[in-house]
């Protein structure tokens, strides 16, 4: 669960530098507002969909965003255009939206957020929302995103106070909703974590009477020993972030291994890689190799086809006073394929920061710098360690165990942030009720409805003619109904119904799947009655559309032959428009087949190469015959000729 590793090194340096600056003495104040750039769940989108639950005012002339209506915001030149259906509502260089009453919420691409919004243009092409929200409601979206919401309430309280303190270091600035600051899930609250936030309202960690702000860092597990900020990031020592044994941390262990020898290239013809490239595999198909290839492609070998042939050396050393490795070395030998050839390359890094080795191996495998052993004696390199994350400040798993052992959240925070105390910085002002006329003696209020709506008789069916999935269900009382569809990874694809008022009885909705692939999906149905009682159900559905038979053969185009006098080879270049199995053979002027350059070789769409060694053939006309067969067994052939003229001897 490492939602807690704090982004890039420079960001961490700034974080802890700011934390060391003088703060404001603790006193009663208003609840601050924090501004959050939404990117973690949204990604980079040039067009987004928003659905407000209440009416929002905007900075567009006399225009409002009406409740329960769907709007599209998209980048057009230097403006963001707001559309309702196909009709333009307005446009501006940035669009501001503020709820007329209450605090929302507003849905952005299926995820709900409270507060006000400024929609800006980022990098000239993306719509980037900035959510302005009160700190307490922000924390209700942070705590369950950073710590499992079903953990002990005292651990959740400790997380809430640490998260609030950290956020206080960024009031007046803009943070984002990723691990670079704190993961913020919007209006995705959990009852238990919300209770922890409310129970600690306004409370922050202080040192010498001053809030420690962005010094309130935390990680998943420290492996049994805390680390200092100086060792972790090279910043000036903070007196409350010290090194010591942690009896509460579970010392969770991790390990990974990799074989030193992956491919024996001694018997491979590197000048004719197309003949064997698809068939030759590394000795192991592991995550560590996948991570190494991804790192290589991001560091000088973009879009290259890579095979790791050996990892002859890997070391991690130079431990800090907190027991973490700070330096490392690695050697990686690999092949890249270019124009039918395999080019041997070697990467060797010696005594580089351990963070670079971790980036190559992958932080999900090398979970921390608390490394116990690096065993290189045999044919396999084995690395093992403890913890998950940087180990500075609060350990989340340590907080969990401490709470279960009877420690309070203040005990937990005092242990992880030495010589600090918890103080209340502000309290939210109570809402003032509107004045009312005196009323006669009231009649007893009716008993409160505590029963959630019943959702039953849920059925799904697929209509192959309309290419729609029909979902029907029955609810037993009037309720606001939401229906959405998730893919097998849990990602929400679309909302079929969004907070629509429905009467008791049978209801149905349809999902158009003409552009949806066959796999497992889940329909989620949520019903909320007038007393705010909520029920939900999830219904799995496997989409199995019939796929039209492919009767179109692959296309072979742009065939070209050439002769390279340096290598004494005839080269064949051609393109195919889809993945296919390829056979290439060469025949002489009498039609006799001389050799096969490829047999049943699986190729992806794009440019292909083959070559013929001309050293043992005489002058004359030679024909390359290319046959490609796709997955539906459609076949096509093409020919390309070359006339070889050798000098007389």
Automatic annotation (TrEMBL):
Any one of the GO BP annotations: sporulation resulting in formation of a cellular spore
Gene Ontology CC entries for this record: outer membrane-bounded periplasmic space
Biased composition (Pro residues): 432-445
Region (Disordered): 429-448
Pfam family, one: SpoIID
InterPro entries xref list: Bact_Sporulation_Assoc (IPR051922), SpoIID/LytB (IPR013486), SpoIID/LytB_N (IPR013693)
Residues of the Sporulation stage II protein D amidase enhancer LytB N-terminal domain: 126-207
Protein name, as recorded: Putative secreted protein
Organism from which the protein derives: Bacillus methanolicus (strain MGA3 / ATCC 53907)
């Amino acid at each position: 669960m490492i939602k807690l590793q704090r982004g890039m090194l420079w960001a961490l340096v700034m974080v802890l530098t700011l934390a060391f600056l003088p703060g404001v003495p603790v006193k009663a104040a208003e609840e601050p507002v924090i501004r959050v750039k939404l990117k973690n769940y949204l990604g980079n989108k040039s067009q987004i969909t928003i659905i407000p639950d209440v009416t929002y005012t905007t900075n567009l002339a006399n225009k409002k965003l009406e409740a329960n209506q769907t709007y599209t915001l998209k980048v057009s030149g230097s403006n963001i255009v707001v559309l309702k259906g196909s009709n333009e509502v307005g446009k501006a260089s940035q669009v501001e939206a503020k709820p007329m009453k209450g605090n929302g919420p507003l849905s952005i691409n299926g995820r709900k957020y409270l507060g006000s919004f400024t929609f800006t243009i980022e990098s000239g092409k993306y719509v980037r929302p900035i959510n302005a929200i009160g700190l307490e409601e922000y924390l209700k979206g942070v705590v369950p995103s950073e710590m499992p919401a079903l953990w002990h309430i005292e651990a959740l309280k400790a997380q809430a106070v640490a998260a609030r303190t950290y956020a206080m270091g960024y009031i007046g600035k803009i943070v984002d909703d990723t691990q670079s600051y704190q993961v913020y899930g919007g209006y995705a609250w959990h009852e238990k974590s919300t209770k922890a936030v409310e129970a600690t309202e306004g409370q922050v960690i202080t040192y010498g009477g001053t809030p420690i702000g962005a010094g309130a860092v935390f990680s998943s597990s420290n492996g049994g020993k805390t680390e200092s900020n100086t060792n972790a990031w090279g910043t000036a020592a903070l007196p409350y972030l010290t090194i010591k044994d942690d009896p509460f941390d579970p010392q969770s262990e991790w390990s990974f291994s990799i074989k030193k020898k992956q491919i024996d290239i001694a018997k491979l013809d590197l000048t004719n890689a197309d003949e064997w490239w698809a068939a030759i595999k590394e000795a192991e198909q592991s995550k560590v190799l996948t991570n190494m290839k991804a790192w290589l492609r991001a560091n000088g070998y973009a879009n290259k086809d890579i095979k790791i042939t050996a990892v002859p050396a890997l070391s991690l050393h130079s431990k800090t006073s907190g027991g973490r490795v700070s330096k490392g070395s690695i050697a990686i030998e690999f092949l890249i394929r270019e124009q039918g050839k395999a080019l041997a390359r070697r990467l060797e890094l010696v005594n580089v920061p351990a963070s670079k080795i971790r980036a190559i191996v992958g932080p999900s495998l090398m979970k921390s710098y608390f490394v116990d052993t690096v065993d290189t004696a045999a044919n396999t390199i084995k690395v093992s360690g403890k913890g998950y994350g940087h180990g500075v400040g609060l350990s989340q798993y340590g907080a969990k165990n401490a709470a279960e052992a009877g420690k309070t959240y203040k005990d937990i925070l005092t242990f992880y942030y030495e010589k600090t105390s918890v103080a209340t910085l502000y309290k939210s002002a109570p809402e003032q009720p509107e004045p009312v006329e005196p009323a006669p003696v009231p009649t007893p209020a009716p008993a409160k409805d505590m029963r959630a709506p019943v959702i039953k008789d849920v059925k799904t069916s697929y209509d192959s003619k309309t290419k729609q999935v029909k979902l029907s269900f029955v609810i037993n009382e009037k309720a606001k109904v939401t229906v959405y569809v998730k893919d097998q990874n849990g990602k929400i694809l679309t909302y079929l119904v969004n907070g629509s008022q429905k009467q008791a009885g049978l209801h149905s909705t349809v999902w158009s799947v003409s552009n949806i692939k066959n796999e497992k999906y889940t329909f989620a149905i949520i019903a909320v009655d007038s007393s705010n009682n909520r029920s939900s159900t999830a219904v799995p559905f496997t989409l199995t559309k019939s796929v039209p038979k492919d009767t179109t053969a692959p296309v072979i185009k742009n065939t070209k032959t050439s002769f390279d006098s340096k290598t004494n080879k005839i080269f064949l270049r051609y393109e195919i428009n889809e993945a296919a199995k390829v056979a290439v053979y060469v025949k002489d002027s009498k039609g006799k087949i001389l050799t096969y350059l490829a047999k049943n070789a699986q190729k992806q769409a794009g440019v292909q190469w083959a070559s013929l060694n001309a050293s043992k053939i005489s002058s004359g006309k030679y024909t390359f015959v290319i046959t490609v067969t796709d997955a539906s067994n459609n076949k096509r052939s093409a020919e390309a000729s070359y006339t070889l003229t050798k000098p007389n001897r």
